[in-house]
histidine kinase
Amino acid sequence: MKKPSDSPESGYGIGDLLGLGSQSARKSYYPALLDRLEELEKERNRYKWLFENALHGIFQANLRGGFLACNPAMARICGYDSPEHLMGKMIRLREQLFCRAAEFDTIRQELLDQGSLSARETQFQKADRTPVHVAVTLLRRPDLGPEVVEAFVADITERVQARQKLEQLNQDLERRVEERTEALQNANVGLRYQIEERERVERKLVVAVEAAKEANRSKDKYLAAASHDLMQPLNAARLMISALQDSQLPESESRMVHQVHRALEGAEDLLADLLDISKLDQQAMKPDLVHTDLEALLRGLGEEFEAVAANAGLDFRLRASPAFIRTDQRMLTRIVRNLLSNAFRYTRRGGVVMALRRSQGRIRIEIWDTGVGIEPEKLQEIFTEFHQLLPQGTGGRQGVGLGLAIVERMIRVLGYRIDVSSRPGRGSRFVVTLPSEAEVGELAIPSSAAISALSEGLAGLSVMVIDNEPAVLESMAALLERWGCEVIAVPDERQARSRVASGSRPDILLADYHLDHGLTGCEAIYGIRQALGRDVPAAIITADRSDETRRFMRAQYLPILNKPVKPNRLRALLTSLSNRA
Protein backbone atom coordinates (compact mmCIF):
# COMPACT_ATOMS: atom_id res chain seq x y z
CA MET A 1 0.00 0.00 0.00
CA LYS A 2 1.30 3.43 -0.91
CA LYS A 3 2.26 5.76 1.96
CA PRO A 4 1.05 9.37 1.99
CA SER A 5 4.63 10.46 2.07
CA ASP A 6 5.48 8.67 -1.14
CA SER A 7 5.92 10.84 -4.20
CA PRO A 8 3.07 10.78 -6.73
CA GLU A 9 3.72 9.09 -10.01
CA SER A 10 3.04 12.27 -11.94
CA GLY A 11 6.28 13.78 -10.59
CA TYR A 12 4.98 17.12 -9.01
CA GLY A 13 2.24 17.83 -6.51
CA ILE A 14 0.88 20.95 -4.81
CA GLY A 15 3.46 20.50 -2.07
CA ASP A 16 6.22 20.73 -4.66
CA LEU A 17 4.73 23.94 -6.07
CA LEU A 18 4.72 25.52 -2.59
CA GLY A 19 8.15 24.23 -1.79
CA LEU A 20 6.70 21.70 0.66
CA GLY A 21 7.13 18.51 -1.34
CA SER A 22 8.68 16.53 1.47
CA GLN A 23 7.97 16.30 5.16
CA SER A 24 11.35 17.81 6.01
CA ALA A 25 10.72 20.73 3.65
CA ARG A 26 7.31 21.38 5.20
CA LYS A 27 8.78 21.36 8.65
CA SER A 28 11.44 23.88 7.64
CA TYR A 29 8.75 26.35 6.43
CA TYR A 30 6.46 26.11 9.48
CA PRO A 31 8.37 28.64 11.65
CA ALA A 32 8.41 31.25 8.89
CA LEU A 33 4.69 30.79 8.29
CA LEU A 34 3.97 31.07 11.99
CA ASP A 35 6.09 34.26 12.26
CA ARG A 36 4.29 35.78 9.30
CA LEU A 37 0.91 34.88 10.72
CA GLU A 38 1.90 36.42 14.07
CA GLU A 39 3.01 39.65 12.34
CA LEU A 40 -0.27 39.81 10.44
CA GLU A 41 -2.19 39.31 13.69
CA LYS A 42 -0.27 42.08 15.42
CA GLU A 43 -0.87 44.40 12.48
CA ARG A 44 -4.56 43.56 12.52
CA ASN A 45 -4.77 44.19 16.28
CA ARG A 46 -2.97 47.52 15.89
CA TYR A 47 -5.40 48.77 13.25
CA LYS A 48 -8.29 47.39 15.28
CA TRP A 49 -7.07 49.35 18.34
CA LEU A 50 -6.74 52.56 16.31
CA PHE A 51 -10.19 51.98 14.82
CA GLU A 52 -11.83 51.43 18.21
CA ASN A 53 -10.02 54.24 20.07
CA ALA A 54 -10.03 56.97 17.43
CA LEU A 55 -11.39 60.34 18.57
CA HIS A 56 -13.25 60.83 15.30
CA GLY A 57 -16.05 58.65 14.05
CA ILE A 58 -15.19 56.07 11.35
CA PHE A 59 -17.72 54.02 9.44
CA GLN A 60 -18.23 51.93 6.30
CA ALA A 61 -21.68 52.01 4.75
CA ASN A 62 -23.74 51.36 1.67
CA LEU A 63 -25.42 54.50 0.36
CA ARG A 64 -28.47 52.45 -0.56
CA GLY A 65 -28.68 50.88 2.86
CA GLY A 66 -27.11 51.32 6.28
CA PHE A 67 -23.83 50.85 8.17
CA LEU A 68 -21.53 47.96 7.36
CA ALA A 69 -19.09 48.79 10.18
CA CYS A 70 -18.41 51.65 12.60
CA ASN A 71 -16.27 52.48 15.62
CA PRO A 72 -17.29 53.52 19.18
CA ALA A 73 -16.60 57.22 18.46
CA MET A 74 -19.21 57.14 15.69
CA ALA A 75 -21.70 55.59 18.10
CA ARG A 76 -21.02 58.34 20.66
CA ILE A 77 -21.47 61.08 18.06
CA CYS A 78 -24.86 59.66 17.08
CA GLY A 79 -25.90 59.06 20.71
CA TYR A 80 -25.91 55.24 20.72
CA ASP A 81 -24.59 52.92 23.40
CA SER A 82 -22.33 50.87 21.14
CA PRO A 83 -21.37 50.33 17.49
CA GLU A 84 -23.54 47.21 17.43
CA HIS A 85 -26.53 49.21 18.66
CA LEU A 86 -25.94 51.85 15.97
CA MET A 87 -25.58 49.34 13.14
CA GLY A 88 -28.65 47.47 14.30
CA LYS A 89 -30.80 50.61 14.29
CA MET A 90 -29.32 52.41 11.26
CA ILE A 91 -30.56 50.57 8.18
CA ARG A 92 -31.24 53.56 5.88
CA LEU A 93 -28.67 56.36 5.83
CA ARG A 94 -30.90 58.66 3.80
CA GLU A 95 -33.80 58.72 6.24
CA GLN A 96 -32.14 57.80 9.55
CA LEU A 97 -28.64 59.39 9.53
CA PHE A 98 -29.01 62.64 7.61
CA CYS A 99 -31.29 65.38 8.89
CA ARG A 100 -32.22 66.45 5.35
CA ALA A 101 -32.80 63.84 2.66
CA ALA A 102 -32.13 66.42 -0.06
CA GLU A 103 -28.64 67.01 1.27
CA PHE A 104 -27.99 63.24 1.29
CA ASP A 105 -29.03 63.08 -2.36
CA THR A 106 -26.65 65.92 -3.22
CA ILE A 107 -23.75 64.27 -1.37
CA ARG A 108 -24.49 60.90 -2.97
CA GLN A 109 -24.48 62.37 -6.47
CA GLU A 110 -21.19 64.21 -5.83
CA LEU A 111 -19.62 60.99 -4.56
CA LEU A 112 -20.75 59.10 -7.65
CA ASP A 113 -19.35 61.89 -9.86
CA GLN A 114 -16.13 62.74 -8.04
CA GLY A 115 -15.35 59.72 -5.88
CA SER A 116 -14.66 61.65 -2.66
CA LEU A 117 -15.68 64.62 -0.50
CA SER A 118 -13.49 66.39 2.06
CA ALA A 119 -14.59 68.04 5.34
CA ARG A 120 -18.20 68.55 4.22
CA GLU A 121 -20.25 70.20 6.97
CA THR A 122 -23.70 68.72 7.50
CA GLN A 123 -26.07 67.52 10.23
CA PHE A 124 -26.62 63.94 11.42
CA GLN A 125 -29.56 62.69 13.47
CA LYS A 126 -28.82 61.36 16.92
CA ALA A 127 -30.71 58.52 18.56
CA ASP A 128 -33.08 61.02 20.19
CA ARG A 129 -33.78 62.64 16.78
CA THR A 130 -31.82 65.79 17.70
CA PRO A 131 -29.31 67.12 15.16
CA VAL A 132 -25.53 67.09 15.66
CA HIS A 133 -23.19 69.23 13.55
CA VAL A 134 -20.43 67.22 11.88
CA ALA A 135 -17.66 67.58 9.29
CA VAL A 136 -17.54 64.40 7.21
CA THR A 137 -14.90 63.18 4.75
CA LEU A 138 -16.23 60.46 2.37
CA LEU A 139 -14.36 58.11 0.02
CA ARG A 140 -16.19 55.89 -2.48
CA ARG A 141 -14.97 52.24 -2.58
CA PRO A 142 -16.15 50.71 -5.89
CA ASP A 143 -13.91 47.70 -5.21
CA LEU A 144 -16.23 46.77 -2.33
CA GLY A 145 -19.49 47.65 -4.05
CA PRO A 146 -20.97 50.23 -6.42
CA GLU A 147 -22.11 52.52 -3.59
CA VAL A 148 -19.95 51.44 -0.65
CA VAL A 149 -18.22 54.36 1.07
CA GLU A 150 -15.82 54.86 3.97
CA ALA A 151 -16.03 57.99 6.09
CA PHE A 152 -14.31 59.99 8.84
CA VAL A 153 -16.62 62.11 11.00
CA ALA A 154 -15.69 65.00 13.35
CA ASP A 155 -18.15 66.48 15.82
CA ILE A 156 -18.00 70.27 15.20
CA THR A 157 -20.89 71.23 17.45
CA GLU A 158 -18.75 73.56 19.59
CA ARG A 159 -17.26 75.24 16.51
CA VAL A 160 -20.72 75.77 15.00
CA GLN A 161 -22.09 77.09 18.28
CA ALA A 162 -19.17 79.53 18.56
CA ARG A 163 -19.76 80.65 14.99
CA GLN A 164 -23.48 81.06 15.66
CA LYS A 165 -22.70 83.04 18.80
CA LEU A 166 -20.39 85.30 16.83
CA GLU A 167 -23.05 85.78 14.18
CA GLN A 168 -25.56 86.58 16.91
CA LEU A 169 -23.16 89.10 18.41
CA ASN A 170 -22.71 90.69 14.99
CA GLN A 171 -26.45 90.85 14.54
CA ASP A 172 -26.85 92.41 17.99
CA LEU A 173 -24.14 94.92 17.16
CA GLU A 174 -25.79 95.77 13.85
CA ARG A 175 -29.10 96.14 15.64
CA ARG A 176 -27.56 98.42 18.24
CA VAL A 177 -25.89 100.46 15.51
CA GLU A 178 -29.22 100.77 13.75
CA GLU A 179 -30.89 101.83 16.99
CA ARG A 180 -28.20 104.41 17.68
CA THR A 181 -28.42 105.64 14.10
CA GLU A 182 -32.16 106.00 14.40
CA ALA A 183 -31.76 107.82 17.71
CA LEU A 184 -29.24 110.20 16.13
CA GLN A 185 -31.52 110.80 13.18
CA ASN A 186 -34.39 111.56 15.56
CA ALA A 187 -32.15 113.88 17.55
CA ASN A 188 -31.07 115.68 14.38
CA VAL A 189 -34.68 116.53 13.64
CA GLY A 190 -34.72 118.81 16.69
CA LEU A 191 -31.29 120.31 15.89
CA ARG A 192 -31.79 121.37 12.30
CA TYR A 193 -31.48 125.02 13.17
CA GLN A 194 -27.87 124.37 14.31
CA ILE A 195 -26.77 122.88 10.98
CA GLU A 196 -25.13 126.04 9.72
CA GLU A 197 -23.17 126.51 12.95
CA ARG A 198 -22.08 122.90 12.89
CA GLU A 199 -20.91 123.15 9.29
CA ARG A 200 -18.85 126.20 10.19
CA VAL A 201 -17.27 124.29 13.08
CA GLU A 202 -16.60 121.32 10.81
CA ARG A 203 -14.85 123.56 8.29
CA LYS A 204 -12.67 124.91 11.07
CA LEU A 205 -12.02 121.37 12.25
CA VAL A 206 -10.85 120.35 8.75
CA VAL A 207 -8.47 123.29 8.72
CA ALA A 208 -7.24 122.38 12.21
CA VAL A 209 -6.70 118.74 11.23
CA GLU A 210 -4.66 119.78 8.20
CA ALA A 211 -2.65 122.16 10.37
CA ALA A 212 -2.05 119.38 12.90
CA LYS A 213 -0.89 117.03 10.15
CA GLU A 214 1.48 119.66 8.83
CA ALA A 215 2.80 120.31 12.33
CA ASN A 216 3.31 116.58 12.85
CA ARG A 217 5.27 116.31 9.59
CA SER A 218 7.54 119.15 10.71
CA LYS A 219 7.75 118.24 14.39
CA ASP A 220 11.53 117.71 14.41
CA LYS A 221 12.15 121.09 12.77
CA TYR A 222 9.76 122.87 15.13
CA LEU A 223 11.25 121.22 18.20
CA ALA A 224 14.75 122.21 17.15
CA ALA A 225 13.66 125.79 16.46
CA ALA A 226 11.81 126.04 19.77
CA SER A 227 14.80 124.63 21.62
CA HIS A 228 17.16 127.09 19.95
CA ASP A 229 15.02 130.21 20.41
CA LEU A 230 14.06 129.47 24.02
CA MET A 231 17.47 128.33 25.18
CA GLN A 232 19.42 131.31 23.75
CA PRO A 233 18.31 133.94 26.32
CA LEU A 234 18.60 131.38 29.13
CA ASN A 235 22.12 130.58 28.01
CA ALA A 236 23.15 134.23 28.06
CA ALA A 237 21.64 134.73 31.51
CA ARG A 238 23.26 131.58 32.93
CA LEU A 239 26.71 132.56 31.63
CA MET A 240 26.39 136.07 33.05
CA ILE A 241 25.24 134.77 36.43
CA SER A 242 28.17 132.30 36.48
CA ALA A 243 30.57 135.18 35.82
CA LEU A 244 28.98 137.16 38.68
CA GLN A 245 29.30 134.16 41.01
CA ASP A 246 33.05 134.13 40.39
CA SER A 247 33.23 137.82 41.37
CA GLN A 248 33.80 139.22 44.84
CA LEU A 249 30.37 140.59 45.76
CA PRO A 250 28.87 141.75 49.08
CA GLU A 251 26.98 139.06 50.95
CA SER A 252 23.51 140.42 50.13
CA GLU A 253 24.27 140.73 46.40
CA SER A 254 25.94 137.32 46.39
CA ARG A 255 22.81 135.82 47.94
CA MET A 256 20.64 137.49 45.30
CA VAL A 257 22.90 136.19 42.51
CA HIS A 258 22.64 132.69 43.99
CA GLN A 259 18.83 132.95 44.09
CA VAL A 260 18.74 134.11 40.47
CA HIS A 261 21.03 131.19 39.58
CA ARG A 262 18.62 128.75 41.27
CA ALA A 263 15.64 130.30 39.47
CA LEU A 264 17.36 130.07 36.08
CA GLU A 265 18.38 126.49 36.83
CA GLY A 266 14.77 125.59 37.61
CA ALA A 267 13.52 127.29 34.42
CA GLU A 268 16.15 125.48 32.38
CA ASP A 269 15.26 122.10 33.87
CA LEU A 270 11.55 122.66 33.31
CA LEU A 271 12.06 123.75 29.70
CA ALA A 272 14.40 120.84 28.97
CA ASP A 273 11.89 118.41 30.51
CA LEU A 274 9.01 119.79 28.47
CA LEU A 275 11.00 119.60 25.23
CA ASP A 276 12.20 116.07 25.97
CA ILE A 277 8.76 114.76 26.97
CA SER A 278 7.32 116.24 23.76
CA LYS A 279 9.99 114.61 21.59
CA LEU A 280 9.61 111.27 23.36
CA ASP A 281 5.81 111.26 22.98
CA GLN A 282 6.14 112.09 19.27
CA GLN A 283 8.83 109.40 18.86
CA ALA A 284 11.20 112.04 17.53
CA MET A 285 14.03 110.98 19.85
CA LYS A 286 16.01 108.03 18.52
CA PRO A 287 18.87 106.35 20.40
CA ASP A 288 22.42 107.00 19.19
CA LEU A 289 24.30 103.89 20.34
CA VAL A 290 28.04 104.25 20.96
CA HIS A 291 30.62 102.35 23.03
CA THR A 292 30.58 103.81 26.54
CA ASP A 293 32.68 103.42 29.68
CA LEU A 294 29.81 102.94 32.11
CA GLU A 295 32.00 103.20 35.21
CA ALA A 296 33.43 106.56 34.05
CA LEU A 297 29.91 107.82 33.24
CA LEU A 298 28.63 106.96 36.72
CA ARG A 299 31.72 108.38 38.44
CA GLY A 300 31.22 111.64 36.53
CA LEU A 301 27.64 111.82 37.78
CA GLY A 302 28.86 110.93 41.25
CA GLU A 303 31.23 113.90 41.25
CA GLU A 304 28.36 116.10 40.08
CA PHE A 305 26.13 115.04 42.99
CA GLU A 306 28.80 115.11 45.70
CA ALA A 307 28.21 118.84 46.05
CA VAL A 308 24.44 118.25 46.26
CA ALA A 309 24.97 115.71 49.04
CA ALA A 310 27.34 118.05 50.92
CA ASN A 311 24.87 120.96 50.75
CA ALA A 312 22.04 118.74 52.01
CA GLY A 313 24.15 117.15 54.76
CA LEU A 314 23.59 113.67 53.32
CA ASP A 315 25.93 110.73 52.80
CA PHE A 316 26.58 109.74 49.18
CA ARG A 317 28.43 106.59 48.12
CA LEU A 318 29.26 105.12 44.74
CA ARG A 319 30.09 101.45 44.18
CA ALA A 320 31.12 100.68 40.62
CA SER A 321 33.25 98.20 38.74
CA PRO A 322 34.58 98.44 35.15
CA ALA A 323 31.89 97.90 32.52
CA PHE A 324 31.77 98.83 28.86
CA ILE A 325 28.45 98.89 27.02
CA ARG A 326 26.90 100.10 23.80
CA THR A 327 24.26 102.69 24.65
CA ASP A 328 23.03 106.23 24.08
CA GLN A 329 25.25 108.20 26.46
CA ARG A 330 22.96 111.23 26.63
CA MET A 331 19.80 109.23 27.39
CA LEU A 332 21.49 106.97 29.95
CA THR A 333 23.08 109.99 31.66
CA ARG A 334 19.69 111.71 31.78
CA ILE A 335 18.05 108.59 33.25
CA VAL A 336 20.60 108.21 36.06
CA ARG A 337 20.72 111.99 36.73
CA ASN A 338 16.92 112.15 37.08
CA LEU A 339 16.89 109.15 39.44
CA LEU A 340 19.66 110.69 41.58
CA SER A 341 17.90 114.07 41.65
CA ASN A 342 14.70 112.35 42.74
CA ALA A 343 16.54 110.42 45.46
CA PHE A 344 18.16 113.56 46.93
CA ARG A 345 14.93 115.56 46.60
CA TYR A 346 12.99 113.22 48.89
CA THR A 347 15.78 112.26 51.30
CA ARG A 348 16.12 114.43 54.41
CA ARG A 349 18.47 112.30 56.49
CA GLY A 350 20.69 109.32 55.87
CA GLY A 351 22.01 109.17 52.34
CA VAL A 352 21.99 107.84 48.81
CA VAL A 353 23.92 104.91 47.32
CA MET A 354 24.53 104.36 43.59
CA ALA A 355 25.86 100.93 42.61
CA LEU A 356 26.88 99.26 39.36
CA ARG A 357 26.46 95.48 39.60
CA ARG A 358 26.23 92.37 37.47
CA SER A 359 23.46 89.84 37.99
CA GLN A 360 22.71 86.75 35.87
CA GLY A 361 24.79 88.06 32.99
CA ARG A 362 23.12 91.49 33.00
CA ILE A 363 24.25 94.92 34.17
CA ARG A 364 22.21 96.65 36.87
CA ILE A 365 22.40 100.29 37.94
CA GLU A 366 20.88 100.55 41.41
CA ILE A 367 20.05 103.75 43.30
CA TRP A 368 19.10 103.42 46.97
CA ASP A 369 17.91 106.18 49.27
CA THR A 370 16.68 106.54 52.84
CA GLY A 371 13.93 108.99 51.92
CA VAL A 372 10.22 109.18 52.60
CA GLY A 373 9.42 106.07 50.56
CA ILE A 374 6.40 105.35 48.37
CA GLU A 375 3.09 103.69 49.17
CA PRO A 376 2.68 100.33 47.36
CA GLU A 377 -0.44 101.45 45.49
CA LYS A 378 1.41 104.50 44.11
CA LEU A 379 4.46 102.71 42.70
CA GLN A 380 3.12 102.83 39.13
CA GLU A 381 1.66 106.34 39.40
CA ILE A 382 5.09 107.91 39.94
CA PHE A 383 5.95 107.38 36.24
CA THR A 384 3.00 109.50 35.00
CA GLU A 385 3.39 113.12 33.95
CA PHE A 386 3.06 115.88 36.56
CA HIS A 387 2.87 113.39 39.42
CA GLN A 388 4.64 114.46 42.60
CA LEU A 389 5.39 112.17 45.48
CA LEU A 390 4.91 114.91 48.09
CA PRO A 391 2.53 117.87 47.88
CA GLN A 392 3.88 121.39 47.56
CA GLY A 393 4.96 122.95 50.82
CA THR A 394 6.32 119.79 52.45
CA GLY A 395 9.90 120.91 52.13
CA GLY A 396 12.71 120.42 49.65
CA ARG A 397 13.02 121.58 46.08
CA GLN A 398 9.92 120.59 44.15
CA GLY A 399 9.74 119.88 40.44
CA VAL A 400 6.70 119.60 38.24
CA GLY A 401 6.60 115.81 38.11
CA LEU A 402 8.26 115.14 34.73
CA GLY A 403 11.54 113.56 35.85
CA LEU A 404 10.36 109.97 36.26
CA ALA A 405 8.02 110.26 33.26
CA ILE A 406 11.07 111.07 31.12
CA VAL A 407 12.99 108.18 32.73
CA GLU A 408 10.20 105.71 31.89
CA ARG A 409 9.99 106.84 28.26
CA MET A 410 13.77 106.80 27.71
CA ILE A 411 13.97 103.34 29.30
CA ARG A 412 11.34 102.18 26.81
CA VAL A 413 13.18 103.75 23.83
CA LEU A 414 16.47 102.06 24.82
CA GLY A 415 14.80 98.70 25.45
CA TYR A 416 15.92 98.56 29.09
CA ARG A 417 13.87 97.72 32.20
CA ILE A 418 13.26 99.70 35.38
CA ASP A 419 12.03 98.24 38.67
CA VAL A 420 11.16 100.08 41.85
CA SER A 421 10.64 98.84 45.40
CA SER A 422 9.96 100.98 48.43
CA ARG A 423 9.01 100.98 52.10
CA PRO A 424 7.20 104.09 53.36
CA GLY A 425 9.36 105.95 55.85
CA ARG A 426 12.40 103.73 55.11
CA GLY A 427 13.41 104.58 51.56
CA SER A 428 13.27 103.40 47.94
CA ARG A 429 15.35 101.46 45.43
CA PHE A 430 15.32 102.03 41.67
CA VAL A 431 17.01 99.42 39.45
CA VAL A 432 17.79 99.96 35.75
CA THR A 433 18.60 96.64 34.04
CA LEU A 434 20.59 96.67 30.80
CA PRO A 435 20.35 93.62 28.50
CA SER A 436 23.41 91.40 28.25
CA GLU A 437 23.88 92.19 24.55
CA ALA A 438 24.56 95.84 25.49
CA GLU A 439 27.91 94.89 27.06
CA VAL A 440 31.03 95.15 24.89
CA GLY A 441 34.71 94.46 25.35
CA GLU A 442 36.93 96.84 27.24
CA LEU A 443 37.87 99.97 25.29
CA ALA A 444 40.74 102.38 25.76
CA ILE A 445 38.56 105.31 26.88
CA PRO A 446 40.30 107.93 29.01
CA SER A 447 38.61 108.67 32.31
CA SER A 448 37.63 112.14 33.49
CA ALA A 449 40.25 111.85 36.23
CA ALA A 450 42.98 111.28 33.62
CA ILE A 451 41.83 114.33 31.67
CA SER A 452 41.82 116.46 34.81
CA ALA A 453 45.34 115.28 35.66
CA LEU A 454 46.65 116.52 32.30
CA SER A 455 45.08 119.95 32.70
CA GLU A 456 47.22 122.78 33.99
CA GLY A 457 44.41 125.37 34.09
CA LEU A 458 42.85 127.62 31.50
CA ALA A 459 44.86 130.78 32.18
CA GLY A 460 46.32 132.27 29.01
CA LEU A 461 44.27 130.03 26.71
CA SER A 462 43.13 131.86 23.55
CA VAL A 463 39.49 131.01 22.81
CA MET A 464 37.55 132.23 19.76
CA VAL A 465 33.77 132.31 20.34
CA ILE A 466 31.44 132.54 17.31
CA ASP A 467 27.77 133.29 18.07
CA ASN A 468 25.20 135.47 16.31
CA GLU A 469 23.53 136.42 19.62
CA PRO A 470 25.22 139.53 21.11
CA ALA A 471 24.01 138.69 24.63
CA VAL A 472 25.52 135.20 24.43
CA LEU A 473 28.82 136.56 23.11
CA GLU A 474 29.02 139.09 25.93
CA SER A 475 28.15 136.54 28.61
CA MET A 476 30.56 133.89 27.27
CA ALA A 477 33.38 136.44 27.06
CA ALA A 478 32.74 137.60 30.63
CA LEU A 479 32.81 134.02 31.99
CA LEU A 480 35.92 132.94 30.05
CA GLU A 481 37.81 136.08 31.02
CA ARG A 482 37.05 135.31 34.67
CA TRP A 483 38.84 132.01 34.12
CA GLY A 484 41.90 133.80 32.68
CA CYS A 485 41.22 133.04 29.01
CA GLU A 486 41.94 135.44 26.15
CA VAL A 487 38.61 135.72 24.36
CA ILE A 488 38.07 136.57 20.67
CA ALA A 489 34.29 137.13 20.32
CA VAL A 490 32.91 137.36 16.78
CA PRO A 491 29.37 136.95 15.34
CA ASP A 492 30.21 135.13 12.08
CA GLU A 493 32.86 133.44 9.96
CA ARG A 494 33.66 136.60 7.98
CA GLN A 495 34.74 138.55 11.07
CA ALA A 496 36.53 135.49 12.42
CA ARG A 497 38.62 135.26 9.23
CA SER A 498 39.30 139.01 9.49
CA ARG A 499 40.63 138.60 13.03
CA VAL A 500 42.82 135.69 11.91
CA ALA A 501 44.15 137.76 9.02
CA SER A 502 45.05 140.54 11.48
CA GLY A 503 47.16 138.18 13.55
CA SER A 504 44.81 136.39 16.00
CA ARG A 505 45.82 132.80 16.65
CA PRO A 506 43.14 131.06 18.75
CA ASP A 507 43.97 127.82 20.58
CA ILE A 508 40.32 126.68 20.70
CA LEU A 509 37.20 127.41 18.61
CA LEU A 510 33.71 127.47 20.16
CA ALA A 511 30.92 128.02 17.60
CA ASP A 512 27.14 128.17 17.73
CA TYR A 513 25.58 125.72 15.27
CA HIS A 514 22.88 128.00 13.79
CA LEU A 515 24.41 131.26 12.53
CA ASP A 516 22.93 134.03 10.37
CA HIS A 517 22.07 133.63 6.67
CA GLY A 518 21.61 129.85 6.97
CA LEU A 519 25.28 129.20 7.76
CA THR A 520 26.43 126.75 10.42
CA GLY A 521 29.16 126.69 13.03
CA CYS A 522 30.69 123.65 11.29
CA GLU A 523 31.28 125.71 8.14
CA ALA A 524 32.79 128.51 10.22
CA ILE A 525 35.16 126.09 11.98
CA TYR A 526 36.34 124.56 8.69
CA GLY A 527 36.88 128.05 7.20
CA ILE A 528 38.95 129.24 10.19
CA ARG A 529 41.02 126.04 10.21
CA GLN A 530 41.73 126.60 6.51
CA ALA A 531 42.76 130.21 7.19
CA LEU A 532 45.05 129.16 10.06
CA GLY A 533 46.46 126.21 8.16
CA ARG A 534 46.08 123.82 11.10
CA ASP A 535 43.51 121.60 12.77
CA VAL A 536 42.49 123.82 15.70
CA PRO A 537 40.54 121.93 18.44
CA ALA A 538 36.89 123.00 18.21
CA ALA A 539 33.44 122.30 19.60
CA ILE A 540 29.85 123.19 18.77
CA ILE A 541 27.64 124.91 21.36
CA THR A 542 23.97 124.83 20.41
CA ALA A 543 20.42 124.80 21.72
CA ASP A 544 19.47 122.31 18.98
CA ARG A 545 18.89 119.01 20.81
CA SER A 546 17.71 116.97 17.82
CA ASP A 547 19.10 113.49 17.22
CA GLU A 548 20.05 114.38 13.63
CA THR A 549 22.27 117.23 14.81
CA ARG A 550 23.98 115.02 17.38
CA ARG A 551 24.69 112.30 14.82
CA PHE A 552 25.96 114.87 12.32
CA MET A 553 28.35 116.35 14.89
CA ARG A 554 29.64 112.89 15.74
CA ALA A 555 30.29 112.23 12.05
CA GLN A 556 32.25 115.51 11.88
CA TYR A 557 34.28 114.56 15.00
CA LEU A 558 33.14 117.74 16.75
CA PRO A 559 32.16 117.65 20.45
CA ILE A 560 28.75 119.17 21.18
CA LEU A 561 27.60 121.10 24.26
CA ASN A 562 23.92 121.99 24.66
CA LYS A 563 22.64 125.37 25.75
CA PRO A 564 22.06 126.63 28.39
CA VAL A 565 25.72 125.92 29.08
CA LYS A 566 26.61 124.74 32.56
CA PRO A 567 29.94 126.30 33.65
CA ASN A 568 31.40 123.05 35.00
CA ARG A 569 30.72 121.25 31.71
CA LEU A 570 32.17 124.15 29.73
CA ARG A 571 35.30 124.05 31.88
CA ALA A 572 35.64 120.29 31.35
CA LEU A 573 35.21 120.75 27.57
CA LEU A 574 37.86 123.48 27.45
CA THR A 575 40.23 121.32 29.50
CA SER A 576 39.78 118.40 27.10
CA LEU A 577 40.26 120.62 24.01
CA SER A 578 43.31 122.35 25.52
CA ASN A 579 44.93 118.95 26.10
CA ARG A 580 44.43 118.18 22.41
CA ALA A 581 45.92 121.57 21.51
Summary: The CA atoms of residues 5 and 23 lie 7 Å apart. Residues 1-15, 391-397, 442-456 have pLDDT under 50 and may be disordered. The longest strand covers residues 116-125.
